Amino acid sequence: MRLETLNEGAAKTAVRGETPTRWLSRALASDTSAAYAFVAPAFFLLLFLVAYPFVLSLWFSLSDARVGETGSFVGLDNFRRLLGSSIFIQTLQNSMVFTAAALGLKTVLGMALALLLFRVARFKRLIRGAVLLPFIVPTALSTLVWWWMFEPMYSVVNWTLKGLHIVNHDIPWLPDPYLAMCTVVLVNTWRGLPFFAITLLAGLVSIPRELYEAAESDGAGPVGRFWHVTLPLLQPVLAVVILFSAIFTLADFNIVYVLTKGGPMNMTHLFATYSFALGLQSGQVGQGAAVSLFLFPILLAVVFVQLRLVRQSTTL
Amino acid sequence: MSRSRARQIRPLFTLYLPVMPFVLFALFPLYFMLITSFKKNAELYDPSSIPFLIQRGVTFGHYQLLSNETLFWSWFVNSLIVSVAATVISVVIGILAAYPLARMRFLGGDSFGMAIFITYLVPPSLLFLPLSTVVNRLGLSDSLWSLVVTYPTFLVPFCTWLLMGYFRTVPKEIEECAMLDGCGRLQTLLRILLPVAVPGVICAALFAFTLSWNEFLYALVFVSPAELKTMTVGVFSELIRGDIYYWGGLMAGACIGSLPIVVAYVFFLDYYVSGLTAGAVK
Questions:
Q1: Which of A52, B93, B98, B253 is the most exposed place for a label (fewest CB within 10 A)?
Q2: Residue B279: pLDDT band by 50, 70, 90 thresholds?
Q3: CATH architecture of B82-246+261-281
Q4: At the fourth CATH level, which superfamily is domain A77-315?
Q5: What's the Cα-to-Cα distance from A118 to each of A108, A207, A291, B19, rounded to whole Å?
Q6: Is residue A2 predicted with pLDDT exceeding 50?
Q7: Domains of chain A by residue range
Q8: Phi, psi for B190 (deg, rounded to 5)
Q9: Contact A148 B32 (CB under 8 A)
Q10: What is the pLDDT of residues A153-164, one digit of tens each?
Q11: Of A116, A198, A241, the CB nearest to B273
Q12: What is residue B150's predicted lDDT score, i.e. its pLDDT?
């Protein structure tokens, strides 16, 4: 009621005509229509370029579409064929290993780094700035230098290991399937660590100091304070960071595509790279779409958990 | 005396020493990228030379090769055009959408907020196949427009989400005063909220630019003519020919390709930090 009268006032001045946006102001006089007008561009963008492609993706996955052809309905054939294909099973397994290893490393190292950064007083900006850098630099380009660092003949990593007499021959990092997976995990950790560290640091800063003082007066040592104060209070931030990163680690394309293209022997293929290989390189759009749709249930699970966390924190 | 000195020295071992490996881990690949791009081929491919240093003189040959014999500067300009256009479009759409979502109650508002949030979490690799069909049907494939149109699909949700947080921090009373004085919603947004939310807008723009500049998958899929490629794709796919790798040139390309982002980063570090944590903490 009160808002309506307000808007009538607004409309009147608008009609008097003081600004060139007069007609817009009149159109926006009513609250709801204003809201819809403001939201419209974003709405149509999401409708035509996110929702529609998603529906299209569902259709592709249920059809035998190929590049340039719409294809016809084949039911769950694509999914059935995928689950019977050893490459897809390998991809599924790779995705789980890759995501679990990279997330584990990023969580543990990110936590350690955040705890250290929290206490850093001198050169604070410099150190934080340096640590955050890998996250900002274009991944496709920074992965090139990792490729060069693990190049079979001139690898700086092998040079160092040989120089320190840890090994006496060149280690075949990228041609070896297991080492290739380790390398891909390492590069993903390198790139994603800053996100964990900086976000967890922001969480640490928001923990009230008094709690630590109270814990200390109760006789808790540094380890006790970490387990009983830091970790429980950091839990919501930690959960959000891990979930958020879980999606983008699982959906990683750049690092694997640049370093190994899914090889050797498909041992580093993830959903994104395999979907790319199937859908674009061999033209089986239906199969490719079906592969990428495996990302969706995980996405939904993350959204679900994240919303529950948000609700919990708002009801508290 | 000795106690205070111990207090000064202790952080050196318990804090600055443990931080060093993290800093080295973060910076070494970038350092290595830089020195490789300035090294002569004779030194680069000599297994007996120390890879960490440049001992036999600096060369600009790799940069010259890049400049004269590849379409490098076209890629650079393409990246610039696409990133600026996508950023402007996304920030404007984001501002417009964030205002009602943060401030007004309207039918479907909550559901739309939810849709924005879900889209924010959709990785590009989920939708690149159908999007390439859509881009084809719109007649945009093999043009920079395909990227200007598709990048906002992941930029707008981010900008909207970020700006919603900033708009909520503005006291409602200021806005009501403005409306009493006869400002419409659009004027209130432009004159009252936007000036207060300038840090948020800068942050959104910086992140949108960075994400566009760094984007790889869409640029790889939607644009195939060499002269229309963006930086990230051009360096990767045009500088590698068969089994011959021009590592010096590749690293030079990677350096210049990262430069605009690093420069922006050095000047706006705090904005990057706040943008990074906005999604998770707010």
A1: A52
A2: low
A3: Orthogonal Bundle (1.10)
A4: MetI-like (1.10.3720.10)
A5: 16, 12, 42, 11
A6: no
A7: 2-61, 77-315
A8: -70, -40
A9: yes
A10: 888 999 999 889
A11: A198
A12: 96
